[in-house]
Design brief:
Elements (H helix, E strand, L loop, with lengths): L2 H44 L5 H23 L9 H29 L4 H27 L8 H7 L9
Length: 167
């Protein structure tokens, strides 16, 4: 084995170890948060009538937990894994969560602006920003190459193609 191949193997092993520890750490923090908030969640979400805010809460909370459990159980070593199931679960959890975040921000802005026309315009703007964020996430996930660990969105931005927007 050449020195370069050995160095690459050592780097990969270290990266795998860091990713595994990070996955367990995230799961531990989520578990701690679940334990701390269980009684309030039971009282405010599950023992009351189901409302639209309950739906947003569930969509914000549980896909993240499910994805972290999936990460620990499957035990992926790198973010740029070609496993279709991993990429699907990541995309599904991030899209659902970002959609719920966008909706909750829109509702907060609209409510804080006293249900005014300005609040409606600002909420609409946040909706556009959220939709474009979700669209870019989907585009990036589709474009990720299994052969390289490059980020296509960053490569596109760094090539200067974004300069068209500022001309």
């Amino acid at each position: 084995m050449s020195a370069a191949a050995f160095d690459h193997a050592i780097h990969f092993a270290r990266q795998s170890q860091v990713n595994k520890c990070a996955a367990y750490s995230r799961l531990a923090l989520l578990t701690y948060d679940l334990v701390l908030s269980a009684s309030r969640e039971k009282e405010l979400i599950w023992q009351r009538e189901f409302r639209s805010s309950s739906v947003i809460y569930v969509i914000l909370r549980y896909p993240v937990i499910a994805f972290q459990l999936f990460n620990v159980v499957i035990g992926h070593t790198t973010i740029h894994d070609c496993n279709v199931l991993y990429r699907f679960t990541w995309a599904a959890s991030s899209i659902i969560t970002r959609l719920a975040i966008t909706v909750s921000f829109m509702l907060r802005v609209y409510a804080m602006m006293s249900l005014s026309r300005t609040g409606l315009v600002l909420a609409g703007f946040l909706g556009l920003v959220g939709a474009s964020t979700i669209g870019l996430d989907v585009w990036q996930d589709i474009q990720v190459s299994c052969a390289t660990s490059s980020n296509p969105l960053c490569t596109w931005l760094l090539r200067g193609e974004i300069d068209i927007l500022f001309v």
